[in-house]
Specification:
four-stranded antiparallel β-sheet, signal, about 15% helix, single chain, 1 helix
């Protein structure tokens, strides 16, 4: 009888985990502005709105050469991390809101991390 209780509990836990809602795809959690040159002023590549289906996972810039990033705003204390590789592993930079990340490298991927989701 104890074994069946464990099985039923495990099934209930698995069903509860799979029922967790995904972040709303139409909510803009953060806004970035991308630049093709260091300094967040030259070669403005435009703004990038980060919506629910792009939070809490690694993303790339889709072929845009990014040498500086301005983190313009975020809701719900979301954070920005920017990387020099396409897999969000190398040379991690935490970028505070209302600041510019600029350097001599090309930034290739990013994560917008939102704890509440």
């Amino acid at each position: 009888m104890h074994f069946s209780t464990i099985i039923i509990s495990a099934i209930a836990l698995a069903m509860g985990a799979s029922a967790m809602p995904a972040p709303p795809a139409d909510t803009r959690y953060a806004q970035l502005r991308l630049f093709g040159e260091p300094g967040c002023s030259a070669q403005n590549e435009g703004e990038l709105g980060v919506y629910g289906d792009y939070v809490n996972k690694c993303n790339t810039w889709d072929g845009t050469t990014v040498k500086s990033v301005s983190f313009e705003y975020a809701i719900n204390n979301c954070q920005l991390r920017v990387y020099s590789d396409v897999t969000c592993h190398l040379d991690r930079h935490h970028v505070p809101v209302k600041t510019c990340l600029s350097g001599d490298k090309i930034y290739r991927s990013y994560e917008v991390l939102c704890d509440h989701l």
